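Researcher: Please translate sequence to structure tokens.
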Amino acid sequence: MIQKKELCMKQKNTILNDAYHCAYALLLKDASIYLIKASTGPLKGLLNLAGGSVPKNSSSEIALKKTIKTQANLRIKKMKLATFFECEVPLDAKKTIRYYGMIYAVSDYLGSSEQNNWHPIHSLTQEMVTPWTWYIVENYLNANQTTVIKEPSQSTIAT
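Model: Translation complete:
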């Protein structure tokens, strides 16, 4: 399993093959978070926030709302920017993929989603989730703050 430090560090002398502009939703219910297992790419098998790539010439908000409707069968009514992220994922010794974008805290939504995609926040480990999901769990959803989102941060995940 690739460690977070390896996934998010800036690597020297690498070729950046692809860059993906992404938008993800932070969906919370009780003390659980909505996550989807990545089915392709270098992060295959890891749990990830719902969302994904933003098509060219589309806004992050519109793309995210459409994706959440498809992935989670939920209609977002209210969301707020929680943070930005940037992460390089190594494919091999010389090639990486860069993911960058926004994570939105969803405070109001309609519909019902699959129960097996809701995961107790405190049961998650770094090895189970994508680097930006772990960043959210670690920084926004600590033991005393499972339903509160802090103000947006201008920092990126590059540690």
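Researcher: Any highlights?
Model: The first helix runs from residue 4 to 8.
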